[in-house]
From TrEMBL:
InterPro entries: CCB3/YggT. The keyword Nucleotide-binding does not apply. It comes from Paenibacillus yonginensis. Belongs to the YggT family. The chain crosses the membrane at residues 6-27, 63-86. The lineage of its organism: Bacteria, Bacillati, Bacillota, Bacilli, Bacillales. Pfam families: CCB3_YggT. This is Cell division protein. GO terms for cellular component: membrane. The keyword Membrane applies. Keywords: Membrane, Transmembrane, Transmembrane helix.
Length: 91
């Protein structure tokens, strides 16, 4: 496996997870959809990651949850850090 292939795989997987988080957050506007099979499946994939941020970031004015935004930013930086570490190892 070449390094470029590994980086491409990391980019693809992180992009998929990024969009899963966005879809899950958008589904919160439609409560009936979140209770469906797809909503429950997305919740099982995304909620463990988001719950880490929800523990430390309270909702603004008691109802606006900005933790998914911080979680998406953290995901991007984690991917950049992982790719940097792998570039140090392989090059």
């Amino acid at each position: 496996m070449t390094v470029e292939l590994i980086f491409s795989l990391i980019d693809i997987l992180s992009s998929i997870y990024y969009f899963l988080i966005i879809i899950y957050v958008l589904m919160s506007w439609l409560p009936n959809v979140r209770e469906s099979f797809v909503g429950e499946w997305l919740g099982k994939l995304v909620e463990p990651y988001l719950s880490v941020f929800r523990r430390f970031i309270p909702p603004i004015m008691g109802m606006i949850d900005i933790s998914p935004i911080i979680a998406l930013i953290a995901l991007r930086y984690a991917v950049l850090g992982l790719k940097y570490i792998l570039s140090l190892v392989f090059y």
